[in-house]
Structures are given as structure tokens and as C-alpha cells.
Amino acid sequence: MRSITLALAVALALLAGWTDWRWRRIPNWLTVPGFVAGLAVNSATAGWGGLKTSLLGTGLGLLLLLPFVLLHSLGAGDWKLAGALGALVGPAVLADVLMGSVFVAGLMAFALVIYKRRIKETLRNIGAMLASMVRLRMPGVEVSLDNPQSLKVPYGVALALSTVLYGVWSLKMRGAH
Could you report the per-residue pLDDT of 146-161, keeping only the tens digit for each? Predict the structure, then answer.
């Protein structure tokens, strides 16, 4: 049962990561069927408990990432992908995947800042964001996805990598037992 949902999550994440890398968007035609598949597979294999797990996973993904969408620092496709992955793997696994994706996205951002030689500007923006948090104000548009000059990390790629890494780790752990 769990192998099926994890395999579906890896497949969904890889396809979403590819579309995010290629076109910088994750379409609804991918996330909505992923969500429905998560509900269907978990319900079919574990009944009401599986449905509950799917809904809790979806809720966790959507709830945790909603503030970032509202601040325009994360796209809606990334947000819906997290919900669909949650429907497939449930809240416990999704929490691990999301923590891993934050680490992966941070590494990607660090590499991008160095590659684009934007260290000073990035440090200035981090300072501006911290200052706005201390003043309990929203940061300016210059540090959001709305700024066409800002560097953007495709978070769907980070989610895909962390999902694949979790899947590999899970297989390795099963083989160890």
C-alpha cells in the first residue's frame, strides 16, 4: 500500500519538477489528478483511515505553505503540488518531504545567488525582510515574486528532489530490515 502511494508521489513530483524547471509553472492538470489519486488510492487501500490520512496530508501541505503564497514568495502551483503530495503520502511523510525541500531550495538559492553574482543585493534584501518583520510590516515588492528582477528558485524542483530522496531513503531502509 505505502509503496504504491510513494511511487505515485515520486512520479507526480518528477513530472511537476520537470514542468517547473522547463516552464516555471506547475499546471492544475497535474496537481488536481494527483490529489484525486491520493484520495482514491489511500481510501481503496485503507478505507476511512486512508481518506483521513489523505485529507490531513493535503491540509498540512496547504496550510503550511499558504503564508508564503500570500506573501508572493511561492507560486500557487507549488502550493497545490504540496497539497497533492500530501494527499498521496499523508502528513507524516509530507512533513519530512517539506523539511527536505526547504533545505534543497536553500542550496539551490545559494548556488543561484553565487552563479548570478548577486550576493550583496541578496544580503540587502534579507536585511530588508528582517527589518520589515521586526516592524511587523509586509516586505516591499522588491523581495517578492512580483519583482521581475528577483532571482527565483523553482520550488517544484526542490519538492521533486526531496520526494525522490525520501523515496530512495525509504527503499533503502526497507531493504535494511
Answer: 667 777 899 999 999 9
123 domain residue, yes or no = no
Domain that holds residue 112: 2-116+151-176
* Cα–Cα distance for residue pair 50/59, rounded to 1 Å: 14
Backbone angles phi, psi at 150, to 5 degrees: -70, 150
Global confidence as pTM: 0.87
Distance CA 89, CA 105 (A): 21
Which letter, b or e, does each residue of 10-48 get, where b requires 16 or more Cβ atoms within 10 Å of its Cβ? bebbbbbbebbeeeebbeeebbeebbebbbebbbeebee
Low-confidence ranges of the chain (pLDDT < 50): 1
